[in-house]
Please model this.
Amino acid sequence: MFDSNVMDAETTHYYNGHLPRFIYQDELFRTLTDIKTVYDLGTWFPFSSHVFAEMGADVKFGCELPPIITGIPNATHILCDFKNPPQLPPADMVMCCECLEHLPYNLIKIRDYLVSLVKPNGYLFLSFPTGSTKKGEWEDELPEIDDKRHTHLREFPVDSARLFCQGTGFDVLSEKCIKTPMYGAGEGIIHILMRSK
Model:
């Protein structure tokens, strides 16, 4: 887990407020020993992917914002704006955690973009809140907002989350909902690990 000395106050607050899910992710990801390349897209800090960096994988993380910190061994920040996502070669693991609910773009297109980045027999890991906020359907383009980091536009009740993930065509390996001190709506935050065929 992270030493709070490498994080600013806001990042530390977020990390501690979601610690139960980060502990779960850390334990889950340590069981995946065949990961060499990782994309952690939609994040300003490698909360979820740092475990792969610690195990020696090449981790690329990022969103449309500049990084809060650099210098984490094996982890490189890249700009990733889902409005115009970067062209990247396939990776062993693609993750998008606590991001989709903030985006005003067509989430089906973003999901399909993430799927396109996964190598054969690779993994896709998604997590998002299961509350009831719904300012549009998955495929809707919503008005741009100024505060993408804090505003939820669409959340995913569990049945909807499963349908969304079925659209990947991948096999679901695990699914778990976790409530955290910072998010307790619905059934909490759902975590779905999938594997390509």
